[in-house]
Design a protein that fits this description.
Strand order of the largest sheet: 3-2-1-4-5-7-6
Strand content: 15-25%
Helix content: 40-55%
Shape: globular
Largest sheet: 7 strands, mixed
Structural class: alpha/beta
Number of helices: 10
CATH architecture of the domain at 9-154 and 180-211 and 270-278: 3-Layer(aba) Sandwich
CATH superfamily of the domain at 9-154 and 180-211 and 270-278: Vaccinia Virus protein VP39
CATH topology of the domain at 9-154 and 180-211 and 270-278: Rossmann fold
Radius of gyration: 19 Å
Length: 279
């Protein structure tokens, strides 16, 4: 039996180096989503912004630039190592209006009604209780404030997430997650995500799909990426041994065939859900 992925601080701490090392490439892959999130945030000079699940800090330069000269960004993550990476990003860009802090998303160590904007990219599906986490965001936002968050759409439109999990299933090492399971597709229903925001106390909420493409030069490139970025895959293969790795690689080689383009490049489609909610 393979070990289950851990979405607590220890789990993300163990993946932090891989995420930091691949941060620039990930930011390039999700650039359309980042653009959409920043546009939906309508950032203004003087805004106090809280970013949750900031990871290695890829969105920090865009957010910080949007609130100059008088705004302040507090970027947080549950992993100390991720926060250290985010602090390095802020320092390397010479950003004086950014504070980094270790904090999860289920309970926010913050007074009520202090933030003009809260942004969270690919974080809420890992919350212990997403509705409670959204309640916390609503509490911290000022009246008239805005939450802008991204989750993943349904599995059937997300080959990027489904293919590696299907390969684990074919290798006898896991299963394809479904909507509702804690993890990538937990909040994969746009209607449910909108209703969750209303249940958390937001007065307006809209959900918009954002199409993405994850491109890889070869199968080897994709395998290296998946094993570094996915807690689920890394954990399963670490406990499965060499035979498990061989079975997984073979399954991946079969599953990517429909996504191979001219020249051998592999392009896996993905769709994110962009939630914009008004407090």
């Amino acid at each position: 039996m393979t070990e289950a992925a851990s979405y607590d601080s220890e789990g993300w701490e163990s993946r932090a180096k891989d995420w930091i090392d691949r941060s620039d490439r990930f930011e390039e892959q999700v650039r359309p989503l980042t653009h959409a999130m920043v546009a939906a945030s309508d950032l203004q000079s003087g805004h106090r912004v809280l970013e949750l699940a900031c990871g290695p800090g890829g969105m920090i330069p865009r957010i910080a630039a949007g609130i100059l000269p008088d705004g302040e960004l507090v970027a947080t993550d549950i992993s100390d190592a991720m926060v250290a990476g985010a602090a390095s990003v802020a320092k390397s860009h010479g950003l004086q209006n950014v504070e980094t802090r270790t904090m999860g998303i289920d309970w926010l160590d913050s007074p009520a009604a202090v933030a003009d904007r809260i942004l969270c990219r690919f974080g809420y599906m890992f919350a212990v209780d997403p509705e409670s986490a959204l309640h916390e965001a609503r509490r911290v936002l000022k009246p008239g404030g805005r939450l802008v968050a991204a989750t993943w759409d349904l599995p059937e439109v997300n080959a990027y997430g489904v293919v590696p999990n299907r390969a684990l299933e074919m290798a006898g090492l896991g299963k394809v997650p479904v909507v509702g399971d804690r993890g990538m597709f937990r909040l994969g229903s746009a209607d449910d995500l909108r209703e969750l925001a209303f249940s958390a106390g937001f007065i307006e909420a809209s959900v918009t799909p954002v199409e993405l493409s994850f491109d890889f030069e070869s199968l080897e490139d994709l395998l290296e990426w998946v094993c570094g970025m996915s807690q689920t895959v890394e954990t399963a293969l670490r406990t499965a041994g060499p035979e498990g790795q061989i079975a997984f690689d073979q399954a991946m080689s079969e599953l990517v065939i429909p996504f191979i383009e001219e020249g051998g490049k592999i392009s896996l489609p993905g769709v994110a859900l962009l939630l914009t909610a008004e407090a």
